[in-house]
Amino acid sequence: MTQPVPPTIAQAVAALGLTLPAATAPVATYVSTRRSGALLYVSGQISMVDGQPAFLGRIGDTVSPPDGLRAAQAAALGVLAQIAAATDGTVAAVRQVLKLGVYVASAPDFTGQPQVANGASDLMVAVFGEAGRHTRAAVGVAALPRGVAVEIDAVVELEAGQ
What we know:
Helix content: 25-40%
Pfam families: YjgF_endoribonc
Largest sheet: 5 strands, mixed
InterPro entries: Endoribo_LPSP/chorism_mut-like, RutC-like_sf
Number of helices: 3
Structural class: alpha+beta
Protein name: Enamine deaminase RidA (YjgF/YER057c/UK114 family)
Strand order of the largest sheet: 1-2-7-5-6
Organism: Novispirillum itersonii (Aquaspirillum itersonii)
Strand content: 25-35%
Shape: globular
Domain Endoribonuclease L-PSP/chorismate mutase-like: 13-140
Radius of gyration: 15 Å
Number of strands: 7
Mean pLDDT: 96
Oligomer: single chain
């Protein structure tokens, strides 16, 4: 009897009606991921659509909160792409998403960063189930690289052998 093939991260994302982008290369002196034992650290991923920075501006100013949620989801897709590139690409490669850092370019009076960050958190749970539940920081900032509204970094625990 053959073992069922675990679904890939790309398949899990596609089942949600989304597309996993290609993992982007670093644009400065850093690496996209760094592994230490079973931990995978993922560098900040900005909100991108079709390979271009997307959702430009500050939430509560030129970007609406619903678009902020979509920006967080787009940045989280970049995190997933980096995880897939650093592993065999299967959902089973991830033992636990441990932490997300969600940075939200915010208007001075905007306080809905946690709701924006849910765009990323909900995607992690949808892809990994209980293993996608994580700790999180949702931080308002004045500006982010390339003018995007959201950037996300992550710490992920991998299964042995990944």
